[in-house]
Every structure is written in C-alpha cells, then in structure tokens.
Fold Response regulatory domain-containing protein.
Amino acid sequence: MNLYSIFFERRASEKAVSKNTDLSKHINLSHDILSGSVQKLIPVSNRRNSICHLLGEDFDGYKVLIVAPESSALRDHDFWLQQCTKRLEIVSSFELVQTRAVQGGSEWIWVLDAAVFTDMEEAVDALLEIRTRFPKPTIVLCSTEFGVHDLTCARARVVDASIRLPVSRPELALALSASVSNHEYIVNRRLI
C-alpha cells in the first residue's frame, strides 16, 4: 500500500463520517497510546464546534471561494467548510473568479487548485494580476506539484499560502488560518 492510498482512504472515511447526518452526538476518545486502552469518554455536545475547532472561533465571519476542477481533492472539504464559514462557493473556472473579484472584500478567502490553469506560469501571472488589481481577498494556491506546504509570507506577491494536494482537514485548516494571518501582516506592511 503506497502513501497516497493511505491518504485517500483516510480522506474518504473522513468524508463518510462527516456527512453522516444520523449521528446524534460525537464522542472524543482519550486513550493511552502505550497500553491502547480507552481511559475516558468525553461527549461533545455541539457538533459545529467539534468540526470547526481547527479553524478557530473567528472564522465564521469569512467567506470561502474554492476554485477547483470537479476531480479536485479540495472538493472533499466542502461539508466542513460550509459548516465553519459564513459562506462557501465552489466554481470550476478561474474566469468566474475574475468576475467576483470586484465584489471581493477582505472577508473572502480564495482557495485555488492550480489545475484550473494550463501550467504554473499561467497561474502565477494570473494571480499577480488579480493581486495587483484586487488586493483584499486572501489567496491560497494548492497544487499536486508543490513539494511541501508553504505557510510563510515568501510568496506574498502572489499568494498568502500554498499547500500541496492532497490535503487533510487539519492541514487545510492550518493553511487557511496562516493565510489570513499572512495577508493581514502583508497588508499592514503595505507590501502588496
């Protein structure tokens, strides 16, 4: 079994559990790793909090726009993002983003799969143009071609964070949080 299949199976099982509406309550298990025994059961009464704790309390004021092809792994995160943000939109074409750029404010986070572009050079050129004309939205670029996640300000002229696909829920949540922090820092320093 290769590493990709492990991630794929985990992501598929997370999706199945998160979309199960028959679950009336969630339970966190605390167990001793060495002995493997369960020490206590902790009921989680608020389902939304159990899903959204990764993003933090203030994230429900943000709107997320995912731009990704139908086959993108980013679309697997639609359920929990819809629960944890003010609004979630998913489109499959970058041209649709350009029409929304005029409306985009600082509460928008754009999560773009690089697969909507013909190559990375086109992606960088398009994002530079958008960033220059409309600096308010936070931008996260995702690609299977990236070697690792980059949650720093190193690519601030183009994006606020970049992540390697496929991505788990905790990794995406961390990237979204980091991108918001990076964007605020860059805007306050007037680097874009």
Summary: Residues 169-188 form the longest helix (20 residues).
